[in-house]
Amino acid sequence: MKARFVRVAETGRKTFDITIDGIVAQAAEGDTLMVALLTAQDTLRDSEFGDGRRAGFCVMGACQDCWVWTADGERVRACTTPAVPGMSIVTRVALATEGVWPRIGT
Amino acid sequence: MAAHRDVTQLKVIVIGAGPAGVRAAQALVEAGLRPVVIDEGRRDGGQIYRRQPEGFSRSYETLYGTEAQRAASLHGDFDALRARIDYRPDTLVWNIGTKAVHVVTGTRYDELPFDALIVCSGATDRLMPVPGWHHAGAYSLGGAQVALKSQGCAVGARVVMMGTGPLLYLVAAQYAKAGATVSAVLDTSTFAQRVRALPQLLAIPSTLRKGIALMSVLRRAGVPVHRGVTPIAIDGSAEHGVTGVRAKLANGSMLDVACDAVALGYHLRSETQLADLAGCEFRFDHATQTWLPHIDADGRSSVAGVYLAGDGARVRGADAAERAGRLAALAALRDAGIERGDVVTLRAELARYTRFAAGLRAAFPWPARFAAALPDETIVCRCEAITAGELRRVVREMGAQEANRAKAFSRVGMGRCQGRFCAHAGAEVIAAEARVPLESVGRLRGQAPVKPLPMALRATHQTACVKEDAQTHAQEFSE
User: Fold this and answer.
1) What's this model's pTM, rounded to 2 decimal places?
2) Beta bridge partners of A28
3) pLDDT at residue A103 above 70?
């Protein structure tokens, strides 16, 4: 899948594997989870309100539009969480089994 | 506050480790105190002087440009303070009670008492919705800057910067210098507005010069810059996000720019939730058309022992924030019976930045008129995908002419961002639909927790009784 973020500096860092929706991707040391996800693909979560995929917005922990799940069902905010080797991330509501944000009125 | 016999026993908490927070902490340490410094960031510097992760290699010059020396000075001074303060990075203040703040670090909950509290909560981008701003690949300008500064990434392969404010040109120039592709800069304000603001902008000539220099960076990089534009839409798909931006140019023609990312922002807005939770009085500020906590010249709020400094109190920029932080700390010390430092000079310097900030507002005005013109199907609340039409409906059919009432009916402002990115525009939509002045719409009340809390919280032993309460809040908000 096409990446959204483009690395323009600090490109010589060591890389490691993470898993995104079951597919192995490369992250670099010092990456936030958001960067690791968006240098591998163009979105990182589903809107719970049916308006499509999202890819974060404020990148500074204010908007809360980049929460993703770990495979264990834990929620993490991608822009403030460091990527670490072996992380397994779920970005699609259909694949998440636990910790799903509720939709009001359903 | 009563005079303390032993000043070193005075418990002062500083929230935020940006320019204001660091200078406040420094003034307190100079007076012999050991303040608690709480910061949401992993490293100090705030957003403007955000430090890149350990192991990254870009120079201060590359990262901060003309502000390299200021950044280095702030970071160096903070490093020197580290052993003399109780520094708590990665820590969220999620509520403020009477003389105590409630914090969470990871999953650990704590309640920290204070005699004096200095809130330096910073600012985020002020946003005006545009059709399609919910598409993946739309970012705030500040967010686009953080991605570059802190992570060495551009938010897209072809980025359009749209909105207005000093950050619009700064981020565009930083992207161009870093070798990222800026497809266009679309400024909603005009050159004439800039010229009219010149007398006030001359209050700080050096900053004005730096701003003008950004324009030549963009010119040299061949970035098209359009002023006086009206944003029409961000085009894109639900699955893959942004594909382009449409805007009406000043001459009435339509511009359609292909891109895969857009950075949006209309100058900055103060993060005032914590001041609200601390019980500070707010007043409508006609200059910014926002509600702001009332402060005196030194940053004293209406609540004894609570001080507000930096962009979180008034958007005046980083240089002003350094001075306001120090002034607030000196005020806290003076209120505890300790006279220290030259406040007269600091106040005079801050007054110049206040004039300059007024100039920036005039040069890059908040385009309130766009709110009334938003098509009904435009999403206003990105958190819960609530449209301008729905907000107008509750105003029209349910008589909700006040912000909190409209929020209760429409849920605009009730989502996870707590109204940070929709409240200003939402209030404009309500005012336009109800045909009332913006001031009468009021402001959204701050709610704890100010940000989502982790589900499993561990309390320290002395705060076990509060733990249950915190978890209830967390569940209400998160589950």
Assistant:
1) 0.94
2) A15
3) no
